[in-house]
TrEMBL record:
Short name of one Pfam family: Acetyltransf_3
Matching PANTHER family: ACETYLTRANSFERASE, RIBOSOMAL-PROTEIN-SERINE ACETYLTRANSFERASE
Keywords from the UniProt entry: Transferase
Organism from which the protein derives: Micromonospora inaquosa
Xref: SUPFAM superfamilies: Acyl-CoA N-acyltransferases (Nat)
Protein's name in the database: GNAT family N-acetyltransferase
N-acetyltransferase domain: residues covered: 12-177, 201-370
GO annotations of cellular component type: cytoplasm
PROSITE patterns, alphabetized: GNAT
Molecular functions (GO terms): protein N-terminal-serine acetyltransferase activity; protein-N-terminal-alanine acetyltransferase activity
Gene3D superfamilies: 3.40.630.30
Domain of life: Bacteria
Protein backbone atom coordinates (compact mmCIF):
# COMPACT_ATOMS: atom_id res chain seq x y z
CA UNK A 1 0.00 0.00 0.00
CA UNK A 2 1.28 3.44 -0.94
CA UNK A 3 2.12 5.55 2.08
CA UNK A 4 0.19 8.82 2.03
CA UNK A 5 1.87 11.97 3.40
CA UNK A 6 0.60 13.43 6.65
CA UNK A 7 0.29 17.22 6.70
CA UNK A 8 0.33 19.21 9.93
CA UNK A 9 -0.22 22.98 9.74
CA UNK A 10 -2.45 25.73 11.14
CA UNK A 11 -3.38 23.59 14.15
CA UNK A 12 -4.83 20.61 12.25
CA UNK A 13 -3.50 17.24 11.12
CA UNK A 14 -4.37 15.90 7.67
CA UNK A 15 -3.95 12.12 7.58
CA UNK A 16 -5.40 9.11 5.73
CA UNK A 17 -8.74 7.72 6.91
CA UNK A 18 -8.70 4.70 9.21
CA UNK A 19 -11.28 2.05 10.09
CA UNK A 20 -11.85 3.56 13.53
CA UNK A 21 -12.99 6.82 11.89
CA UNK A 22 -16.24 5.29 10.65
CA UNK A 23 -18.51 6.54 13.46
CA UNK A 24 -17.17 10.09 13.10
CA UNK A 25 -17.57 9.92 9.31
CA UNK A 26 -21.23 9.02 9.83
CA UNK A 27 -21.59 11.87 12.34
CA UNK A 28 -20.32 14.33 9.75
CA UNK A 29 -21.92 12.99 6.59
CA UNK A 30 -25.36 12.20 8.03
CA UNK A 31 -25.66 15.73 9.41
CA UNK A 32 -28.44 17.73 7.66
CA UNK A 33 -26.15 20.64 6.76
CA UNK A 34 -23.58 18.35 5.15
CA UNK A 35 -26.35 16.48 3.35
CA UNK A 36 -27.77 19.75 2.04
CA UNK A 37 -24.57 21.05 0.49
CA UNK A 38 -22.73 17.83 -0.47
CA UNK A 39 -25.29 16.48 -2.88
CA UNK A 40 -23.40 13.32 -3.93
CA UNK A 41 -23.57 11.73 -0.45
CA UNK A 42 -25.89 8.76 0.10
CA UNK A 43 -29.01 9.56 2.10
CA UNK A 44 -29.54 8.32 4.70
CA UNK A 45 -25.82 8.00 5.39
CA UNK A 46 -24.99 4.81 7.29
CA UNK A 47 -22.06 2.94 8.80
CA UNK A 48 -21.90 0.88 5.62
CA UNK A 49 -21.43 4.05 3.56
CA UNK A 50 -18.65 5.21 5.91
CA UNK A 51 -16.82 1.90 5.64
CA UNK A 52 -17.10 2.03 1.83
CA UNK A 53 -15.61 5.53 1.84
CA UNK A 54 -12.70 4.51 4.07
CA UNK A 55 -11.96 1.27 2.20
CA UNK A 56 -12.83 2.21 -1.39
CA UNK A 57 -13.81 5.83 -1.98
CA UNK A 58 -10.88 7.58 -0.32
CA UNK A 59 -8.21 5.31 -1.88
CA UNK A 60 -9.85 5.83 -5.29
CA UNK A 61 -9.49 9.61 -4.87
CA UNK A 62 -5.72 9.13 -4.53
CA UNK A 63 -5.38 6.78 -7.50
CA UNK A 64 -7.44 9.21 -9.60
CA UNK A 65 -4.88 11.97 -9.10
CA UNK A 66 -6.57 13.70 -6.16
CA UNK A 67 -6.42 13.33 -2.40
CA UNK A 68 -8.74 12.39 0.46
CA UNK A 69 -7.67 13.43 3.95
CA UNK A 70 -9.20 13.06 7.36
CA UNK A 71 -8.91 16.32 9.28
CA UNK A 72 -7.82 15.31 12.78
CA UNK A 73 -7.11 16.98 16.10
CA UNK A 74 -3.31 16.90 16.51
CA UNK A 75 -3.64 16.24 20.25
CA UNK A 76 -6.10 13.32 20.11
CA UNK A 77 -5.94 12.31 16.43
CA UNK A 78 -9.75 12.10 16.43
CA UNK A 79 -11.48 12.91 13.15
CA UNK A 80 -12.94 16.41 12.94
CA UNK A 81 -13.89 16.44 9.26
CA UNK A 82 -12.53 15.83 5.81
CA UNK A 83 -10.73 17.76 3.08
CA UNK A 84 -9.72 16.57 -0.36
CA UNK A 85 -8.70 17.24 -3.93
CA UNK A 86 -10.59 16.03 -6.99
CA UNK A 87 -11.25 16.64 -10.69
CA UNK A 88 -7.62 17.10 -11.75
CA UNK A 89 -6.96 18.98 -14.99
CA UNK A 90 -3.25 18.28 -15.60
CA UNK A 91 -2.96 20.67 -18.56
CA UNK A 92 -3.91 23.54 -16.25
CA UNK A 93 -2.16 22.25 -13.15
CA UNK A 94 -5.64 22.48 -11.62
CA UNK A 95 -7.49 20.59 -8.88
CA UNK A 96 -10.76 21.15 -7.05
CA UNK A 97 -10.71 21.35 -3.26
CA UNK A 98 -13.62 20.49 -0.97
CA UNK A 99 -14.33 19.84 2.71
CA UNK A 100 -16.88 19.04 5.36
CA UNK A 101 -16.73 19.25 9.16
CA UNK A 102 -18.50 17.38 11.92
CA UNK A 103 -21.14 19.52 13.67
CA UNK A 104 -19.11 19.72 16.90
CA UNK A 105 -16.06 21.00 14.99
CA UNK A 106 -17.77 23.90 13.25
CA UNK A 107 -17.32 27.55 14.13
CA UNK A 108 -13.72 27.13 15.27
CA UNK A 109 -11.87 27.98 12.06
CA UNK A 110 -10.93 24.34 11.44
CA UNK A 111 -12.31 24.19 7.89
CA UNK A 112 -10.26 27.27 7.03
CA UNK A 113 -7.16 25.75 8.65
CA UNK A 114 -7.58 22.46 6.77
CA UNK A 115 -8.19 24.24 3.46
CA UNK A 116 -5.10 26.39 3.91
CA UNK A 117 -2.98 23.39 4.91
CA UNK A 118 -4.02 21.24 1.95
CA UNK A 119 -3.80 24.17 -0.48
CA UNK A 120 -0.20 24.90 0.47
CA UNK A 121 0.71 21.21 0.32
CA UNK A 122 -0.86 20.96 -3.14
CA UNK A 123 1.08 23.99 -4.40
CA UNK A 124 4.30 22.60 -2.92
CA UNK A 125 3.77 19.36 -4.83
CA UNK A 126 3.08 20.89 -8.23
CA UNK A 127 -0.44 22.30 -8.35
CA UNK A 128 -0.81 25.69 -10.03
CA UNK A 129 -4.49 26.49 -9.58
CA UNK A 130 -7.10 25.34 -7.05
CA UNK A 131 -10.84 25.78 -7.48
CA UNK A 132 -13.32 25.75 -4.62
CA UNK A 133 -16.97 25.52 -5.70
CA UNK A 134 -19.81 26.47 -3.36
CA UNK A 135 -23.57 26.53 -3.68
CA UNK A 136 -24.83 30.13 -3.78
CA UNK A 137 -26.76 29.68 -0.51
CA UNK A 138 -23.79 28.22 1.37
CA UNK A 139 -22.50 31.41 2.99
CA UNK A 140 -20.40 29.67 5.68
CA UNK A 141 -18.45 27.76 3.03
CA UNK A 142 -17.89 30.97 1.09
CA UNK A 143 -16.46 32.54 4.23
CA UNK A 144 -14.05 29.61 4.52
CA UNK A 145 -12.97 30.16 0.91
CA UNK A 146 -12.25 33.84 1.52
CA UNK A 147 -10.47 33.18 4.80
CA UNK A 148 -8.27 30.55 3.11
CA UNK A 149 -7.12 32.90 0.34
CA UNK A 150 -9.56 31.99 -2.43
CA UNK A 151 -10.88 34.85 -4.57
CA UNK A 152 -14.33 34.94 -6.10
CA UNK A 153 -14.05 34.30 -9.82
CA UNK A 154 -17.64 33.97 -11.02
CA UNK A 155 -20.80 31.92 -11.38
CA UNK A 156 -20.80 28.47 -12.99
CA UNK A 157 -24.26 28.00 -14.43
CA UNK A 158 -25.80 24.54 -13.88
CA UNK A 159 -22.42 23.19 -12.75
CA UNK A 160 -23.85 21.28 -9.77
CA UNK A 161 -26.02 18.18 -9.71
CA UNK A 162 -28.98 18.12 -7.32
CA UNK A 163 -30.31 15.06 -5.52
CA UNK A 164 -33.58 15.42 -7.43
CA UNK A 165 -31.74 14.90 -10.76
CA UNK A 166 -31.80 18.64 -11.52
CA UNK A 167 -28.96 21.12 -11.91
CA UNK A 168 -28.00 24.21 -9.96
CA UNK A 169 -25.47 27.02 -10.20
CA UNK A 170 -22.18 27.04 -8.32
CA UNK A 171 -19.89 29.90 -7.33
CA UNK A 172 -16.20 29.51 -8.23
CA UNK A 173 -13.49 30.63 -5.78
CA UNK A 174 -9.88 30.31 -6.93
CA UNK A 175 -6.43 30.40 -5.39
CA UNK A 176 -3.29 30.13 -7.52
CA UNK A 177 0.27 29.36 -6.55
CA UNK A 178 1.82 32.50 -5.11
CA UNK A 179 -1.42 33.90 -3.67
CA UNK A 180 -1.22 34.71 0.06
CA UNK A 181 -2.96 32.31 2.47
CA UNK A 182 -5.77 34.75 3.22
CA UNK A 183 -7.99 36.21 4.28
CA UNK A 184 -8.91 37.91 1.00
CA UNK A 185 -9.83 41.59 1.25
CA UNK A 186 -13.52 42.01 0.44
CA UNK A 187 -15.23 44.76 -1.53
CA UNK A 188 -18.04 44.77 1.03
CA UNK A 189 -16.71 44.04 4.53
CA UNK A 190 -18.91 42.89 7.39
CA UNK A 191 -20.64 45.56 9.46
CA UNK A 192 -18.67 46.45 12.62
CA UNK A 193 -20.21 44.26 15.29
CA UNK A 194 -22.76 43.02 12.76
CA UNK A 195 -24.97 46.12 12.92
CA UNK A 196 -25.06 49.86 12.19
CA UNK A 197 -27.09 52.01 14.55
CA UNK A 198 -27.60 55.59 15.70
CA UNK A 199 -29.69 54.33 18.66
CA UNK A 200 -32.91 55.23 16.84
CA UNK A 201 -32.68 52.95 13.82
CA UNK A 202 -30.45 49.92 13.23
CA UNK A 203 -29.30 48.23 10.03
CA UNK A 204 -28.44 44.54 9.90
CA UNK A 205 -27.81 42.13 7.01
CA UNK A 206 -30.88 40.71 5.33
CA UNK A 207 -31.60 37.05 6.17
CA UNK A 208 -33.76 34.24 4.71
CA UNK A 209 -36.34 34.71 7.49
CA UNK A 210 -37.02 38.26 6.25
CA UNK A 211 -38.73 37.05 3.05
CA UNK A 212 -42.35 37.61 4.15
CA UNK A 213 -41.63 41.17 5.28
CA UNK A 214 -39.62 41.97 2.15
CA UNK A 215 -42.40 40.70 -0.08
CA UNK A 216 -44.96 42.82 1.79
CA UNK A 217 -42.73 45.89 1.41
CA UNK A 218 -41.57 45.50 -2.17
CA UNK A 219 -44.94 44.50 -3.60
CA UNK A 220 -46.61 47.70 -2.38
CA UNK A 221 -47.84 49.78 -5.36
CA UNK A 222 -45.99 52.97 -4.34
CA UNK A 223 -42.71 51.05 -3.92
CA UNK A 224 -43.14 49.26 -7.25
CA UNK A 225 -43.94 52.58 -8.99
CA UNK A 226 -40.54 53.99 -8.04
CA UNK A 227 -38.42 51.15 -9.37
CA UNK A 228 -37.39 50.35 -12.92
CA UNK A 229 -39.14 48.64 -14.51
CA UNK A 230 -42.19 49.18 -12.28
CA UNK A 231 -43.14 45.50 -12.11
CA UNK A 232 -44.03 43.86 -8.78
CA UNK A 233 -41.68 41.03 -7.75
CA UNK A 234 -42.87 37.47 -7.30
CA UNK A 235 -42.85 35.85 -3.88
CA UNK A 236 -40.34 33.32 -5.22
CA UNK A 237 -37.99 36.09 -6.39
CA UNK A 238 -38.08 37.78 -2.98
CA UNK A 239 -37.44 34.50 -1.17
CA UNK A 240 -34.46 33.82 -3.41
CA UNK A 241 -33.16 37.37 -2.86
CA UNK A 242 -33.22 36.81 0.91
CA UNK A 243 -31.60 33.37 0.67
CA UNK A 244 -28.78 34.78 -1.46
CA UNK A 245 -28.28 37.97 0.56
CA UNK A 246 -25.21 36.64 2.38
CA UNK A 247 -23.67 35.38 -0.85
CA UNK A 248 -24.24 38.71 -2.60
CA UNK A 249 -22.46 40.45 0.25
CA UNK A 250 -19.49 38.03 0.25
CA UNK A 251 -18.99 38.17 -3.52
CA UNK A 252 -19.06 41.98 -3.43
CA UNK A 253 -22.20 42.26 -5.57
CA UNK A 254 -24.60 43.93 -3.15
CA UNK A 255 -25.09 44.59 0.57
CA UNK A 256 -28.78 44.15 1.45
CA UNK A 257 -29.90 45.35 4.88
CA UNK A 258 -33.01 45.38 7.00
CA UNK A 259 -33.89 48.63 8.80
CA UNK A 260 -35.34 48.22 12.29
CA UNK A 261 -36.64 50.54 15.01
CA UNK A 262 -34.27 50.27 17.98
CA UNK A 263 -36.87 50.98 20.67
CA UNK A 264 -39.35 48.32 19.56
CA UNK A 265 -37.19 46.02 17.46
CA UNK A 266 -39.84 46.22 14.74
CA UNK A 267 -38.81 46.14 11.06
CA UNK A 268 -39.07 49.51 9.34
CA UNK A 269 -37.92 48.81 5.78
CA UNK A 270 -34.86 47.85 3.79
CA UNK A 271 -31.88 49.46 2.11
CA UNK A 272 -28.94 48.35 0.04
CA UNK A 273 -25.64 49.29 -1.50
CA UNK A 274 -24.15 47.90 -4.71
CA UNK A 275 -21.05 48.73 -6.73
CA UNK A 276 -21.65 50.51 -10.03
CA UNK A 277 -17.95 50.91 -10.90
CA UNK A 278 -15.43 48.98 -8.81
CA UNK A 279 -12.39 50.53 -10.47
CA UNK A 280 -13.69 54.05 -9.79
CA UNK A 281 -14.80 53.19 -6.26
CA UNK A 282 -18.43 54.15 -6.96
CA UNK A 283 -21.49 52.48 -5.48
CA UNK A 284 -25.21 53.23 -5.48
CA UNK A 285 -27.77 53.14 -2.68
CA UNK A 286 -31.47 52.36 -2.53
CA UNK A 287 -34.10 52.17 0.23
CA UNK A 288 -37.79 51.64 0.95
CA UNK A 289 -39.92 52.00 4.09
CA UNK A 290 -43.19 50.45 5.22
CA UNK A 291 -45.97 53.08 5.18
CA UNK A 292 -46.54 53.09 8.94
CA UNK A 293 -42.93 54.19 9.52
CA UNK A 294 -42.72 56.96 6.95
CA UNK A 295 -42.51 60.62 7.89
CA UNK A 296 -40.34 60.03 10.97
CA UNK A 297 -36.94 60.61 9.41
CA UNK A 298 -36.08 56.91 9.48
CA UNK A 299 -35.08 56.73 5.82
CA UNK A 300 -32.73 59.69 6.30
CA UNK A 301 -31.16 58.02 9.34
CA UNK A 302 -30.73 54.72 7.50
CA UNK A 303 -29.10 56.29 4.44
CA UNK A 304 -26.81 58.39 6.65
CA UNK A 305 -25.68 55.24 8.50
CA UNK A 306 -25.16 53.42 5.21
CA UNK A 307 -23.09 56.30 3.83
CA UNK A 308 -20.91 56.36 6.94
CA UNK A 309 -20.15 52.66 6.55
CA UNK A 310 -19.55 53.05 2.81
CA UNK A 311 -17.03 55.88 3.18
CA UNK A 312 -15.46 54.30 6.25
CA UNK A 313 -14.91 50.51 6.48
CA UNK A 314 -15.97 49.82 2.88
CA UNK A 315 -13.58 52.45 1.47
CA UNK A 316 -15.98 53.65 -1.22
CA UNK A 317 -15.07 56.97 -2.86
CA UNK A 318 -18.43 58.08 -4.25
CA UNK A 319 -22.09 57.23 -3.68
CA UNK A 320 -24.86 57.74 -6.19
CA UNK A 321 -28.61 57.28 -6.11
CA UNK A 322 -30.85 57.07 -9.14
CA UNK A 323 -34.49 58.10 -8.83
CA UNK A 324 -37.46 58.65 -11.07
CA UNK A 325 -38.00 62.43 -11.39
CA UNK A 326 -41.37 62.55 -9.62
CA UNK A 327 -40.25 60.66 -6.51
CA UNK A 328 -39.97 63.84 -4.47
CA UNK A 329 -40.07 62.05 -1.09
CA UNK A 330 -36.92 60.14 -1.98
CA UNK A 331 -35.27 63.34 -3.24
CA UNK A 332 -35.86 64.99 0.15
CA UNK A 333 -34.27 62.04 1.95
CA UNK A 334 -31.15 62.21 -0.22
CA UNK A 335 -30.82 65.97 0.13
CA UNK A 336 -31.13 65.78 3.93
CA UNK A 337 -28.26 63.28 3.97
CA UNK A 338 -26.16 65.60 1.81
CA UNK A 339 -26.55 64.16 -1.69
CA UNK A 340 -26.54 66.72 -4.51
CA UNK A 341 -28.55 66.59 -7.73
CA UNK A 342 -26.21 65.98 -10.64
CA UNK A 343 -28.06 65.10 -13.83
CA UNK A 344 -31.15 63.84 -15.58
CA UNK A 345 -30.39 60.99 -17.97
CA UNK A 346 -33.28 60.89 -20.40
CA UNK A 347 -34.83 57.51 -21.14
CA UNK A 348 -32.16 55.62 -19.19
CA UNK A 349 -34.51 53.32 -17.26
CA UNK A 350 -36.91 50.67 -18.57
CA UNK A 351 -40.61 51.37 -18.09
CA UNK A 352 -43.71 49.36 -18.95
CA UNK A 353 -44.67 48.14 -22.42
CA UNK A 354 -41.43 49.25 -24.04
CA UNK A 355 -41.46 52.76 -22.59
CA UNK A 356 -38.43 54.46 -21.08
CA UNK A 357 -38.11 56.53 -17.93
CA UNK A 358 -35.78 59.40 -17.07
CA UNK A 359 -33.24 58.88 -14.29
CA UNK A 360 -32.56 61.78 -11.90
CA UNK A 361 -29.15 61.12 -10.30
CA UNK A 362 -27.90 62.33 -6.93
CA UNK A 363 -24.35 61.89 -5.61
CA UNK A 364 -22.48 62.14 -2.31
CA UNK A 365 -18.73 62.44 -1.69
CA UNK A 366 -16.91 61.73 1.58
CA UNK A 367 -16.14 65.44 2.08
CA UNK A 368 -19.76 66.54 1.59
CA UNK A 369 -21.52 67.58 4.82
CA UNK A 370 -23.94 64.93 6.09
Amino acid sequence: MTRRPVVEAYGVRLRPFRAEDSADVVDGCADPLTQRFVSNLPTPYTETDARWWIDVGAPAAWTGGGAAYAVADPATDRLLGAVGLSNPVPARGQLEIGYWMRPAARGRGLATAATRALSEHAFATGAVRLELLTEPENGPSQRVALAAGFRYEGLRRSAGASREAGRHDLLAWVRVAGDPPGPVARLLPDLPGGVLTDQVVALRPLAPDDAALMYRLHSRPEVVANQAPPVPPTREAIERRCRLAQSGWLTGEIARLLITDVASGEPVGSCGLSYTDVAAGEASVGYALLPEWRGRGYATRAVRLLAGWAFGPAGIARLSAGTVPDNTASHRVLERVGFRRESVQRGRLPGLAGTRLDDLTFALLPADPR
